Amino acid sequence: GQPASFAHGEQKLDSEPTNGRIYVMYHGTTVAAAEQIIKNGFRPSADGMLGRGVYVSRDEKKAARYPLGDKSDQVILKLHVNVGKVKKIDRQDHPMQKTWHDEGYDTAWVPKCCGMVDSGLEEDCVWDLDRIKVVWIVKAPRGHFRKLKELFIESKK
């Protein structure tokens, strides 16, 4: 197939991700989970609003809502995500809400303000872990950033 092209310039968060493009996205998590992600890659959530996959967003504000609860342990990872073939899921009980991957899609995309996400922010669920690459640590608790950065540099060798 065609090599993926990078989505340059200002990302319009309300526009549907274009098939085959690489987007900057974000993932919010804990220090311990971030260490595992940097060392060993993502592990998909077993289930969620869009079923199995890794939940990410082009909107850093969405990633900043995770982990739920206490934010003192929060890490936000910046990613490059090759979205592949994208399916828009814009309402609860959408017929492909959890079966989009079985229908040949690589990423499910929930548009902002469609009523599916309490925050109203966009969300994406990516099935294939090889489509997601950590490119930097945007935020980490004081005292943990250096260790995460060292792990990140080590993982690139």
From TrEMBL:
InterPro entries: Poly(ADP-ribose)pol_cat_dom
Record-level Gene Ontology MF annotations: NAD+ poly-ADP-ribosyltransferase activity
GO cellular component, one term: cytoplasm
Alphabetical list of SUPFAM superfamilies matching this protein: ADP-ribosylation (SSF56399)
Residue ranges the record marks as coiled coil: none
Pfam families: PARP (PF00644)
The PARP catalytic domain, residue ranges: 23-101
Family membership noted in the UniProt record: Belongs to the ARTD/PARP family.
Protein name: PARP catalytic domain-containing protein
Source organism of the structure: Leptobrachium leishanense (Leishan spiny toad)
Phylogenetic lineage: Eukaryota, Metazoa, Chordata, Craniata, Vertebrata
